[in-house]
Amino acid sequence: MKLRFYNTLTQKKEEFEPIEKGRAGMYSCGPTVYNFAHIGNLRTYIFNDLLRRVILENGIKLDHVMNITDVGHLTSDADEGEDKMLAGAKRENKSVWEIAKFYEESFFNDISLLNIQKPEILCRATDHIDDMINMEKKIEDNGCAYFAGGNLYFDTSKIDDYGKLARLKVEDLQYGARTEIDENKRNNSDFVLWFTKSKFGDQDMKWDSPWGTGYPGWHIECCAMSSRYLGEQFDIHTGGIDHIPVHHTNEIAQAEAAIGKKPWVKYWLHGEFLVMDKGKMSKSSGEFLTLKLLVDKGYDPLAFRFLCLGAHYRKQLMFSWEAMEGASQGYKNLKNRISELMKNEQSYDGDKKRSYYLERFSGFINDDLNIPQALALLNDMIKDNKLGSKEKLDITKHFDQVFGLKLLEKEETDIPEDVLALADKREKARGEKNYTLSDKYRDMIREKGFEIRDSKDGQTIEKL
Ligand code: AMP
Ligand code: ZN
Prior knowledge:
Blueprint: E1 4-7, E2 12-15, E3 23-28, H1 39-57, E4 61-68, H2 84-92, H3 96-113, E5 121-124, H4 129-141, E6 145-148, E7 151-154, E8 191-195, E9 215-216, H5 220-230, E10 234-240, H6 244-259, E11 265-271, E12 274-276, H7 291-296, H8 301-309, E13 317-319, H9 321-343, H10 351-366, H11 371-383, H12 389-403, H13 417-431, H14 435-447, E14 450-455, E15 458-463
Parallel strand pairs: 3-4, 3-10, 4-5, 10-11, 12-13
Antiparallel strand pairs: 1-2, 6-7, 7-8, 8-9, 14-15
Helix pairs in contact: 2-3, 4-5, 4-6, 5-6, 8-9, 10-11, 10-12, 11-12, 13-14
């Protein structure tokens, strides 16, 4: 089946046809590194990861870029609120640079625990200030910016289809309806490209620019960095659904104003939110759950990945501890069934059945990433008695390149010294053909919660 995605821009499922045949350019909005990522953020990165794995599974080469926001993002996605990095620095009594470094490392650690593949390019906003200034100059040269009150603003009235991604009607946006009024703005939807005089006090992070010393508005970084690494026009842009009305809307306006070409990006894909019964999880309010908390409660990070895979990316995922427990059990059961298959690898002539499963799998994943259906297919396949365990394992390995659940990796269990000692004694007894004694040791080991299995390569010990 051909690869199809739901495109937020056209509000339709469309066949994926990259600009350059056989190669996709993809940009994902990354973390703002002023606090730990919460499990909602992590759901979005798992969605990005599934998307990249599905593209690769289709034999398409991929250039995936993700930014690290370490400057310019205010607590509101529009130009209001506090600077997030500064808020983090104040909270922890550290410099903004220390905050950025610490939370960037914590983000890398989280994605590694979740088996999220690193994008080909990970880039920091603070390393690309020149690219941002150059793009802002182009926007100004093309007549889409104005300078007022010490800041450079984007003039949204110069764009005939401003808001097309979110189907926003500019005339419906009440001036100052949501937040305090910025007297410098000509239009309600205008936004800052470059701050010099700002209401947020003196910044540690500031650079010279044609408009004075200051720092960039948030939205420009994604345009500048995607343009540097993927070219002026590219295939896919992703993020969470919260980015549709402001951040991505403004990204499109800026990029199309700067390059003078349309469309900037062909396919826009957005992941729905992870929610809790209490409502929204918010990094800036400090009320959120982290991966570390799940691990501290004894959950395998991949059980959280399994939970996310069970819901389609365009549907909300309601997080609860019951759901997490269910996913943890489900993941353990799946791994146990697979390790049973590994103990007894036998092959049948399952060729016809094999291609049936591979085709159905590709049908599901290529249909706008229907991973929940693909997981259900994995379960059916494991139960199918027309396939031998060898085929089942081969197919599981193939599917797992997309799932990323490490399904064929054995758990590393620490085996206590006394169990190891009993196992040695059992092996010795077997060597002496004293099976009554070796069975006695086996029972003693079982009582301690371990099982001994014999294979042609000797005995193995597993946790019961
Ligand atoms: P941030 O670090 O706040 O810039 O957010 C990083 C990513 O997480 C963005 O793509 C957001 O759209 C996404 N995001 C924020 N909250 C949630 C949530 N509750 N569920 C899923 N994704 C989220
Ligand atoms: Zn972005």
